[in-house]
Amino acid sequence: MKKQKPAPGTFSLEKAKVLWAKFSPEAQDCTFQHFYKELCNMSNEKQMMEDLHRIQMTRQMETHNRGMVERALQANAK
């Protein structure tokens, strides 16, 4: 299988692996190959960084909300 090279100005394979590793297994909703392909297709790095920030903020909010629900359920169980 031929390795896909990123378009000029996009992330290297090593940087893509580092970004991929930052996502928890639950948050990895696609394969690494698909993730890397999407990174290579992005031409606007600023927009990509904004999208990644938005994804991280959403993930943090989901984690926070999940924690609040779990605490409420534990309080009701007592």
The tally of beta strands, per DSSP, is: 0
SSE run: HHH
Going by helix content, strand content and strand pairing, the class is mainly alpha
Please report the distance between the alpha carbons of the first and last residues. 57 Å
Helix amount, in percent? 55-70%
Mind telling me the C-alpha Rg? Answer: 17 Å
Largest sheet: none
Count of discrete alpha- or pi-helical segments spanning 4 or more residues = 3
Q: Which residues sit in consecutive blocks of at least 5 with pLDDT less than 50?
A: none
Compute the average pLDDT.
76
Q: Return the domain count.
A: 1
Outline: elongated
What does this protein look like?
It is a single chain. This protein is mainly alpha-helical and 78 residues long. The radius of gyration is 17 Å and the shape is elongated. The protein has helices spanning 13-22, 32-41, 45-77. The mean pLDDT is 76. α1 crosses α2. 68% of the residues lie in helices and 0% in strands. The longest helix is centred in the last third of the chain and has 33 residues, at 45-77. The protein has three helices and no strands. The chain has one domain (13-77).
